[in-house]
Amino acid sequence: MDSIMVGKCIKDIKWPKNCLVVSILRGDNELIPNGDTEIICGDYLTIMTDEEIYQELLDSI
After folding, report:
1. Is residue 4 part of a domain?
2. Domain of 40?
3. How far is 54 from 22, CA to CA, in rounded Å?
4. How many distinct structural domains can be found in the chain?
5. How far apart are CA 29 and CA 58, in angstroms?
6. CATH of the domain at 50
7. Which helix (H) or strand (E) holds 48?
8. H-run or E-run covering 18
9. Cα-based distances in Å from 41 to 17, 49, 52, 61
10. How far is C-alpha 27 from the geometric centre of its chain's CA atoms?
11. Among 10, 34, 35, 41, whose Cα sits 20 to 30 Å from the Cα of 18?
C-alpha cells in the first residue's frame, strides 16, 4: 500500500533488466497494462522476470 510506485506510470519506473509487467489486478478487474498505465494504491501486479533478479525486484518495490 505504501509502495514508491503508486501514482507512477509503468514507463516512468526503472524496472530491472528482463522484467515485464504482464497484468494488473485492480479490484475485480484485470488490466493488460501499457507504458501509460498508472499504478494506483491497491493494485496487484503480475510481473515476469528472470529467477536471478527476482529478489532485486522485490527489494525495489
Report:
1. no
2. 10-60
3. 15
4. 1
5. 23
6. 3.30.70.1450
7. strand 44-49
8. none
9. 24, 22, 28, 13
10. 15
11. 41
Which residues lie below 8 Å from residue 21, measured CB to CB, with a gap of 6+? 10, 15, 33, 45, 46, 47
Q: Are 24 and 30 contacting, i.e. CB atoms less than 8 angstroms apart? A: yes
User: 25: Cβ–Cβ under 8 A, 6 or more apart, which residues?
Assistant: 31, 43, 44, 45, 46
The residue with cell 509502495 is 3
- All three cell numbers of 48: 515476469
The pTM of this model reads 0.79
Reading the block at residue 34, the C-alpha cell is 501499457
